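Hi everyone,

Forwarding the result from last night's run.
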Amino acid sequence: MAADWDKIIEQLKVALVRPVHPRGVLWVGAALIFTIIGIFVAWHITGFLLGLTVLFYICFRDPARFPPQAEGIAVAPIDGVLTQIDRAPWPLEAGIDGEAERLIISQRFYDVHVLRAPMAAALTFAQHVMGQWGSNVFEKSAVGNERSVMVMKSSDGRTIVIEVIGGALPERIRLNARAGDVLTLAQPVAYSAFGGEVRLYVPNHVEIIAQRGQRMIAGETPIAALQILSF
């Protein structure tokens, strides 16, 4: 019986006790300190402060991820819901003519906001562009929002482009990978706080495995089967 309880406790630890992303240490730590102070000097707002601490923890948690072992599989770069699959021109930064398959993943505040490499590749281009605040619900506002673009190319010529669109709140996109870096599958490459949108561009000849409306887990959910062709 004791062994069963120990197993349950360990499972709860795995589910609830997650590492906090370095960008969130200040947010979570400050909220926790104010919560402790509130217990002694302003107990009537302690509930609010505690809720704020939990909210920041949810936003900035950074759980371990375990990518699939199959060859030639691209995984979801971010947690969220796959809301759209269509064809669209490659981002200008990619330097590729024609159209790509575009997969749009929308995030909410409670999703994990760590952006991960969808495949093992060299990061050939990475740029962050400051923009205007606004909601990315509408296509017209997404153009003016803060955004980052990363171009990744594998050793066998496969190219994938990630475009991150910031949400309406501050403290949003931060890149922690630079052009020239060699990335492993599911390696953290950026952070996009408090929700937003991630657009993944892949060549037209690849097979899209994921389905619209499917829940994405960054670094784990297979999203496309990549063919070994240059593009």
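Residues 112 and 224 are 21 Å apart (CA to CA).

Cheers,
N.
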